């Protein structure tokens, strides 16, 4: 009975708050999110980063809102008002970018007030939560590089593939200058636009270069999925076996197509000392699976919440054709083995610790960074890039 | 009664067809659209370009599909099968790209099987219908230019703005070469990504350059909306007064910010003889409103289904400070006044005819092109660009 009263009281309170809001009095503290599409009043964010969402759906029977870790991983019910709008307030959200969506009578619907981003294997809405005192990922009054949509035909997959290529601010002026290259990989269910759109990678690198914290570099963001021509689609599972299998074709595409194409198309320094590879989640795993087989191509590695699970390092002496067996040789060749995770994504923090412990047991040097108060989400990876990029090519 | 029987018969037939399809037998003629996101089986297209759409929505009460002209401007009901999937077949669609969406219990929902594109003022699904015998807008085995995401701070609007800039295939190699520039504007409810994403402009220009039909050029695609810093948002209406008012700030942004920024950032030929402006629908109107005031900046103009209505040319002798009054001088300065429309968008065909007639009455030369069998939609504008670009900078 007590629980019922508490619940009824909550409903009444929510109803009262929304009726107040409907009359335009109590939502004064809420302002449209910076990520809203032009002219959209909702979603709105309060000073404590609570998020007020609204969807017009007069005929719907049940509407929920759900989002990623740091926003609302558990669905929250919206309440219908007399005008046919459904409303909810998501309590204090975590910093940075989060995916979110509505469920309208069981169907997933993106908020028309927000833009969509490719996540969860489909276009998915997203919102930018303010991060007081942290602006390394914002556009600032510094010289800006370009992010280029670059198409190339892949004989291995039999398809045109699209990569995004960041060229640094001075690239247009110093037309004889050659640049090192970071290959930066996205996560499962995302695509080659993730790092520039959700990740704000160009602003992060622009700001680091302007602050003389990172050297000017080219950054290549390709699609993390590759299926060989005429082969059945790569397994979509998340088992280590499925992910490893899916990475085999991608490895061929990197070695035989992406890297040669980039070296041909842009003013790169085409040497292992000037090439880095890093990725988030699935992309972190791919960095391990592809990178460790190709020390002749890369000398810096970043694993951002890398999905490095299972037996990949179980027998590290024999893994990757024994690349870790001679620690002195490995440490000489590889300038950086960098692991990152968000403090809130505990299983990935454990993967970082386990991986580093295993490498340490073999005498392989590595370093790590934990992003405070973030989860398996873009704000972790934005911070990762901001910490990682300054260590490259020096 | 006869109509009832016909209707009942149709329902039974549709039900039978879908039950056959559910058992995997009768949809053999349908293949996933080329525009589907990776791994999505639906929407599917038949040999006669009928479109089979499906949405999983077991709890929904009513589901419709609707799209742009050339697809299904009038909503079509979907029929629920025993597995909770709703199905419909849209009869023979027109060529090229079309926007479309579902209405689920009154809420607009994008098909999770298709990517989204910015249209109708929000992210909106789209599908690519095959166009037999017409491949000028497809990626081909020719050298490809890059489309660059280029950020700049606009003091006039007080905001960071994003432009997309196409640089031609030889731009990277001929590092001393300067290039002419086409400023290409999108339509109402769309944004600066429209021309590269929906329009395939890079493939169109790549193919024209490879075929030596167009000269290598830079193409700049900026956002068509601009609101002065601290001003209330520009009126969203579609009256001539609202659109003209909204274009005033954009004019300032073009003259004082976009064009100087592009001339500073890229290897342009910064002269009126090497500058063109063209736009579709609202962008065609803006090309008229901005361009005719600035013959000192541009010498080629394209109006693609240009929304040039009302009194803009009513008193053409005095319009735009009398720019049309001296025909000989105008014809000498302006190399091209090019009007285009799709044969199916009759009101725009009429606008083309009316505009040209008024200009002709003043002795102003112009030319026009009608795209056969297309409407107020991207396939019209893809063809427009393919016809227009070869006439530039020669």
- In quaternary terms, these chains amount to homodimer
* Sheet/helix structural class of chain A: alpha+beta
- State the largest interface: A-B, 48 and 48 residues
CATH class (first level) name of the largest domain in chain A: Alpha Beta
Number of domains of chain A: 2
Which spans of chain A have pLDDT < 50 for at least 5 consecutive residues?
1-25
Write a short abstract of this structure:
Two copies of one chain form a homodimer. Chain A is of the alpha+beta class.
How would you sum up this structure, described in words?
By secondary structure, chain A is an alpha+beta fold. The first copy, chain A, folds into two domains: 15-129, Sandwich (Immunoglobulin-like), CATH 2.60.40; 146-391, Rossmann fold (3-Layer(aba) Sandwich), CATH 3.40.50.1820. Chain A has nine helices and 19 strands. Chain A has an eight-stranded mixed β-sheet, sandwiched between helices. In chain A, a hairpin with a 4-residue loop joins strand 12 (146-154) and strand 13 (159-167). In chain A, helix 4 (240-265) crosses helix 5. The longest helix of chain A is centred in the middle third of the chain and has 26 residues, at 240-265. The radius of gyration of chain A is 23 Å and the shape is globular. Chain A starts with a helix and ends in a 6-residue tail after the last helix. At the A-B interface, strand 9 and strand 12 of A face strand 9 and strand 12 of B.
């Amino acid at each position: 009975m007590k629980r019922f009263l508490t619940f009824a009281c909550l409903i009444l309170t929510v109803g009262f708050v929304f009726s107040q809001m409907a009359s335009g009095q109590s939502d004064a503290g809420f302002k449209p999110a910076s990520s809203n599409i032009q002219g959209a009043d909702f979603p709105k964010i309060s000073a404590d980063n609570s998020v007020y969402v609204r969807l017009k759906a007069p005929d719907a029977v049940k509407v929920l809102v759900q989002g990623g870790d740091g926003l609302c991983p558990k669905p929250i019910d919206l309440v219908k008002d007399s005008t046919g709008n459904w409303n909810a307030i998501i309590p204090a959200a975590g910093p940075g970018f989060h995916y979110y969506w509505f469920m309208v009578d069981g169907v997933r619907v993106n908020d028309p007030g927000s833009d969509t981003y490719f996540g969860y294997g489909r276009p998915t809405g997203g919102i930018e939560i303010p991060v007081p005192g942290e602006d390394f990922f914002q556009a600032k009054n510094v010289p800006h590089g370009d992010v280029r949509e670059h198409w190339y035909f892949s004989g291995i997959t039999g398809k045109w593939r699209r990569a995004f290529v960041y060229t640094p601010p001075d690239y247009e002026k110093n037309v004889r200058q050659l640049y090192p290259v970071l290959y930066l990989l996205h996560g499962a269910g995302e695509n080659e636009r993730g790092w520039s759109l959700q990740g704000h990678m160009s602003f992060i690198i622009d700001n680091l270069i302007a602050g003389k914290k990172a050297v000017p570099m080219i950054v290549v963001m390709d699609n993390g999925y590759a299926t060989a021509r005429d082969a059945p689609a790569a397994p979509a599972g998340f088992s280590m076996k499925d992910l490893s299998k899916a990475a085999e074709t991608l490895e061929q595409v990197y070695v035989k197509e992406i890297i040669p194409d980039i070296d041909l198309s842009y003013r790169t320094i085409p040497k292992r000392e000037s090439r880095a590879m890093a990725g988030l989640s699935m992309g972190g795993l791919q960095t391990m699976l592809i990178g460790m087989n190709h020390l002749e191509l890369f000398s810096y590695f970043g694993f951002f919440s890398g999905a490095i699970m299972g037996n990949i390092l179980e027998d590290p002496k024999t893994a990757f054709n024994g690349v870790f067996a001679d620690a002195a040789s490995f440490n000489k060749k590889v300038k950086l083995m960098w692991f990152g995770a968000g403090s809130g994504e505990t299983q990935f923090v454990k993967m970082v610790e386990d991986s580093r412990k295993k490498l340490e047991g073999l005498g392989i040097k590595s370093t790590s960074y934990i992003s405070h108060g973030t989860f398996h989400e873009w704000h972790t990876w934005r911070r990762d890039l901001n910490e990682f990029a300054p260590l490259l090519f020096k």
